[in-house]
Design a protein that fits this description.
single chain, 512 residues, alpha+beta, eight-stranded mixed beta sheet, six-stranded mixed beta sheet, 22 strands
Amino acid sequence: MELKAPGIPELISEFTVLLLNTPRYDEVNAGNMPHLTDLSGCRRFSTATANFYVALTQMESERTDQSVLVIGAGVFGVSTAYHLANVLTPSLITIVDRHPFPSPTASSNNAPCGASHDINKIVRADYSNAFYMQLAQEAIEQWQTWDLVKQYYHRTGWVMLDEKNSDIAQRIRKNFKECGAGDDTSDMSFEDVKTSWNGLLKDIDLSEFGNAYWNPGAGWAEADKAVEAMLQAAVQKGVTYRQGQAVDLLLQGSASTLAVSGARLECGTILHADRVILASGAWTSQLMSSTEDQLNFAKHDRIENQVLAAGVCVVHFELDEQDKERYDKLPVVVYGAKGEILPPPSSRLLKFTNAVSFTNRMCLTKGQGKEAASASAISIPAPSQREVPEALKLETLDIVRRVAPNMLTGGYRVAFWRLCWDAVTPQQDQLITRHPNPRLSNLYLAIGGSFHSWKFLPTIGRYVANVVQGKSNGEEMDQKWSWKSVGWGAPGGTKGAHEKVIPKRDLQELIR
């Protein structure tokens, strides 16, 4: 019998029948069909159709430039989207966040909630951990030279008041010398602290401190403006921005081929992607909870064992133009482990952060589309960042009274209060890794800012992009940013990157 090569209409017709009579394509491509090229058991098809089918499955398995969904438009998400757009097809990258783009300013009532969105953030390389000192020096070079962000960086110096018997200043100086970066730091006398900067700190209470450490090379950056600029640059490259709050991850496939296929937004919209990156910060446990329930994860395998949602209280004082000019001369002032003052940006807001952090442990309940409740309480950000318990306000103002009492006696108005949330890890190392569970092998994590990672905005996304592409960032980075087998259950004793932010209380204790 003479076989005649079919024309295009016949190929389309046969291929349609083939798709309707064979297992789902994703099951075939996952390797669950032992006779991928043997189509005789289905029906009799032309050789051309069979070859076309096999070629299609091979093309899919070899495709590397897959779609990517980034959940969260803070420092990790924005930097990741930008750097991914340099190595992948930008039109295949989507970043989703609950807030519109462009976002409201950090001082507005409907400002974004995460720690990344703020009026200003500290930029410094002063770490007692050599790894983060080098990472910060790399980022500061970009802050100083990269046209996209350098206009938002202000090198004012910083003074760190060190508790009695602390060795942190010595550890920092040791790292500066070993890094070969030079050491421009010095010790200030308490008298110099009170008389410098036009005497703005003349009434500061220094009774709890043993040393004043000064580094003229540190500074701060206009946080919301810098994040906005980098996100705008990513969108200009072709990245898609979607507004919406992700509430659930989507799973697809059978038990042996299970994978994350995207996310469901609160509005009901489904966003599909080949790879999903959680840059969701303090909201990560809440987002992952229903998926972990669905997969019956044990407590030690849950994301809560790697990162905790932690909050700090921030108060903003409104300055007039004359006072702003005075406080422009102020450096960043770190008041030990209790908090810090940052100079005012153009908004004329002087910010003080109470650094004594807290969790907010809640048991998730059924409802809002959730089919299961979390097995145990997890820490989640409070629903409103502007509702601050009175006890926390009083505590914060008491610290302000010790640092700069003139802020309370000089007639300065409190413009607004805020609860600032971030994801904190046991050693304050970021969590930049692929999820270790094989059922979530296309899920990636870029979280764990631990209240010290904002400064890495220009550079951190490049390392996340490497992880997503399956590339190593080097043994040390891979280890530091990996999923830890013990997590919060690890014994103490090791110095972390930013130890003072470990929460030792819960927000509910301050509400009662």
